[in-house]
Design brief:
By secondary structure, the protein is of the alpha+beta class. Helices cover about 25% and strands about 20% of the residues. The structure holds guanosine-5'-monophosphate and zinc ion (ZN).
Length: about 110
């Protein structure tokens, strides 16, 4: 299995997991860009947002709602946080297993770099 996040999901590579269920795993980003920087990933391998089909609609909902739940648990729901899917080169995607960044705990600039 060559995909980094498939290996993290399987537990073959260590990570600081903060949540898991039958659909998704969430873990701390190894290079956090904010006081909260969690990645929510599906257990099933999907490379990019471009590869999502209608059959993934429930999974994407689970991912986004889990991001909100993690932000809420950390007290960032009302002050705000950011959820990001990077897709391919211009967005700087480096790991080609779908992941939702959940960032918060400091003001986040807009537009992004
Ligand atoms: P991307 O740039 O593809 O949207 O985001 C990939 C993210 O995965 C980056 O924020 C990066 O720090 C994180 N990352 C890369 N390798 C590892 C790893 O081995 N463990 C963890 N926890 N995060 C990783
Ligand atoms: Zn994968």
């Amino acid at each position: 299995m060559s995909c980094l996040f498939c290996r993290i999901v399987a537990g073959d590579i260590p990570s600081t997991k903060v949540y898991e269920d039958d659909d998704v795993v969430a873990f701390e980003d190894i290079h956090p860009q904010a006081p909260m920087h969690v990645l929510v990933v599906p257990r099933a391998h999907v490379a990019t947002v471009n590869d999502l089909g209608a059959d993934h609609d429930r999974l994407v909902g689970v991912m986004v709602r889990r991001a909100a739940a993690i932000a809420r648990e950390r007290g960032y729901d009302s002050r705000g946080f950011r959820t990001v899917f990077n897709c391919n080169a211009d967005a700087g995607q480096t790991v080609f297993h779908l992941h939702l960044h959940v960032l918060g705990g400091r003001p986040l600039a807009w537009p992004p770099g």
